[in-house]
Amino acid sequence: MAQKDVGNKTPLHDLKNTDEVMKYYDEWAKSQKYNKDMEAWEYSGPKETVEVINKHQKDKNIKIFDAGCGSGLVGVELKKYGFINFDGSDISRELLNQVPKGLYQNLTQSDLNKPTNISNNSYDIVTCVGTFTFAHVKAHALDEFVRITKENGLICFTINEAIYENQGFKKKLEELKNSNKIEEIEFFKSNYLASKDVSAWLGLYKVL
Description:
The protein is an alpha/beta fold. It has helices at 18-29, 33-40, 45-56, 73-80, 93-97, 141-148, 169-178, and strands at residues 64-67, 86-90, 107-109, 123-132, 149-160, 182-193, 198-207. The protein has one domain (44-207): Vaccinia Virus protein VP39 (Rossmann fold), CATH 3.40.50.150.
């Protein structure tokens, strides 16, 4: 399936490496353009993700890691539902600078394709919304998310439909399930960026 262009920007699938992705988002963030575009395009990934989390987790004091938090759209939704203890990380310094003050407990700039310096079993939930897409975070990052999530904790993420199979995400999830590292709770087609005809899978898994 060909990736649909999202607006008048260079299509994401033309990006080749992490450096290009970082520069792309730093530029997109200027003058709040990224946030304005997400609102105009009715980007539903953060809202749908947190709705699923809220359905399965009622303890609002749990510790959450928002991987690829961008300008904090997932954090805004977490706050709406009463969650109060969450950290975030993103590759774009410009987007991190636009996160509302006081929303996250801690914010760091990092490349999620590389191992984090987070200890094993640190978080009750790890979210990753909008980063499993063209030239962004690769499927092997799921291993790291499992590592830093507590036993019986949750990982919740979106995967661009166009890369789900051909960039190894389906295979990685099957590998993790078959090795009894995760258990599928929900997996469905998200509205994601319906206004731009861009679909994504939304998955919620328990870490075993």
